[in-house]
Structure formats: C-alpha cells, structure tokens
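Practice problem: predict the structure.
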Amino acid sequence: MAIAEITKQLLAAKKEKGLTFEDLENVVGRDETWVASVIYRQASADMEEATKLVTALGLPESVAEELTVPPLKGSLDPQI
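Answer:
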C-alpha cells in the first residue's frame, strides 16, 4: 500500500508520542475513525481540527494546512 509522505509523518509522530487514535479523538473532539481517516488522507479537517491534531503530534502548522485540503477518495493503492 502506498502511503503519502504526510501520512508517514503523522504516523511517526503519533508513534513517537505514544498516542492512540482514541487519544487523538479526545484532543480533536471527533471520533477516532474520523481521525484515522484524516491521517490516512481519506478525509479532510477544518483548520481548527487540523491545528489541534498537529499540535498534539508536535508537528508544524504547515502540516495542518495540508490536512484541510480535500483528499482524492480511493487514492490508496488497491494492492494489499
């Protein structure tokens, strides 16, 4: 599965901080499934949500801006 660089960056930060999707759900105020969808670039966030997410992960605001861009649905590599 091809994973976007931003997803790799988000997942690495999540792992480094020892956070779960449930932890991020509590920070952002959205369901953990939605948080995972944003991280895997299958959903987008508004700027407030994206800022909360990247702040919790210790990433720059430029990453938050990228998370507000609507994704191309079905863009993950179909081969698993």
